[in-house]
Design goal:
- By secondary structure, the chain is mainly alpha-helical.
- The protein is 43% helix and 6% strand.
- The protein contains six helices and two strands.
- It has a two-stranded antiparallel sheet with strand order 1-2.
- α4 (46-54) packs across α5.
- The radius of gyration is 23 Å and the shape is elongated.
- The N and C termini lie far apart (58 Å).
Length: 145
Amino acid sequence: MTGAELKQLRLSRQLSRPRLAALAGVHSDTVRYWERKGRIDLNGYAPPRLLNALGADLLRQKRGDIPTPTRVRHGLLLRQQTSKQKTGCCGAQTRQGTPCQAKALPGKSRCKFHGGLSTGPKTLEGKARIAEAQKRRWSKKVLVD
């Protein structure tokens, strides 16, 4: 679900931001924040509350694509935590061999230290380009010394 879909849903129910916020038990700035998001992560505190205030049936439909078990608590459909991994943790293997306990970035499964960094060129053209750049760099370094 995207923020634009959340906004359209709120407008179709003829609710203002402050009114939806009051129904969900959150601040009106929270509604504005989630309406501006490109993709809404349903694991947070506010999105389930907002969707529940807009209609619990919709929440069940949108949660159907989550591969983990769900449960209901206080009228909200929540994701169950699996025994192997904490929800929202990175889980990458550290130098000690234990899973990383840092919080994962929103919309990603890894923390800022373990996710998305380049591992170098993959194609022959890319490898050749890097090799040439390194030759140029180190030839300048030798001439300076």
